[in-house]
Amino acid sequence: MELLHPKALSEIEQEKQAGQLPLLTLGQEVALQKIELAQKDYLIQAFGREIATLKFELIQLKGGGA
Fold first, then answer.
1. CA–CA separation, 3 and 9 (whole Å)
2. In the structure, what pLDDT confidence band is assigned to residue 57 with cuts at 50, 70 and 90?
3. DSSP of 3-56, one letter per residue?
4. Which 8-state DSSP code applies to residue 64?
């Protein structure tokens, strides 16, 4: 079964260019891209929270909090 033996992305790219991608491999590629996008979204959210925290601390240091 294909899922038990995943292929390297470089191998998938070569097969895609040669037009030999089976449907299951396309599904694997889509799943990998979804995981990558979810990881990127998480990082963006984490950076946004960190920026908000830093801005709040800066406001407090400047005395704008009260």
1. 14
2. very high
3. GGSPPPHHHHHHHHHHT---HHHHHHHHHHHHHHHHHHHHHHHHHHHHHHHHHH
4. T
Q: What is the pLDDT of residues 5-44, one digit of tens each?
A: 667 777 777 767 777 666 667 788 889 899 999 999 999 9
Query: What is the pTM (predicted TM-score) of this model?
Result: 0.53
Task: Give the integer Cα–Cα distance in Å for 56 and 50.
Answer: 10
Residue 63 burial (C-beta neighbours within 10 Å; 0-12, 13-18, 19+): exposed
Answer for the pair 27, 1: CB distance below 8 angstroms, yes or no. no
